[in-house]
Amino acid sequence: MKIAIEMFSLVIGLTLGCILFSSIISSNNQTADARDFYNVVVNRIEDSNCNSAVVNACKSEATEKGYTLEVEDVTIYEDQPSKHVTLSYAVTLPVFSLFGEDYEKQAVIEGYAR
Questions:
Q1: Contact at 8 Å (CB) between 102 and 92?
Q2: What is the DSSP secondary structure assignment for residue 92, as one 8-state letter?
Q3: Which of 15, 37, 54, 99 has a Cα at 20 to 30 A from 22?
Q4: How far apart are CA 85 and CA 50, in angstroms?
């Protein structure tokens, strides 16, 4: 009987550990996806020389993906345009949804496109 209880508690512990680790991996994947999208947006803006049509296209694509993209013009010299790019996104931890509570944290990536 003692072995059955030990095995049962071991299985429950391993299951909870797997759920926790998969939740951590999921949140890291969300952060990596947002950072990849941010890098693509900055590269597009830089390659287009801060074209407003490209900026608007990037904003609409960010909205489709569930992100909030803000682009502010911080140009000092007319021949060297630059933009301040801010990407806001939500990171959710799926392990909390198992207990009926949605836990979501806002994260921000900021930088410049020159």
A1: yes
A2: E
A3: 37
A4: 11
pTM to 2 decimal places:
0.84
**Side-chain-side CA neighbours of residue 113 (13 Å):** 27
One-letter amino acid of 5: I
Rounded to 5°, the CA angle 19-30-58 comes to 165
Helix (H, G, I), strand (E, B) or coil at 76: coil
Per residue in 70-97, pLDDT tens?
999 999 988 889 999 999 999 888 777 7
Q: What whole-number distance in Å separates Cα of residue 15 and Cα of residue 7?
A: 12
Per DSSP, the residues of 66-80 read: T-EEEEEE--SBTTB
User: d(Cα 84, Cα 79) in Å, to the nearest integer?
Assistant: 17
C-alpha 15/C-alpha 21 separation (Å) is: 10
Is 45 in contact with 59 (CB distance < 8 Å)?
Answer: no
Strand partners, 87: 69, 109
Percent with pLDDT over 90 in the chain: 62
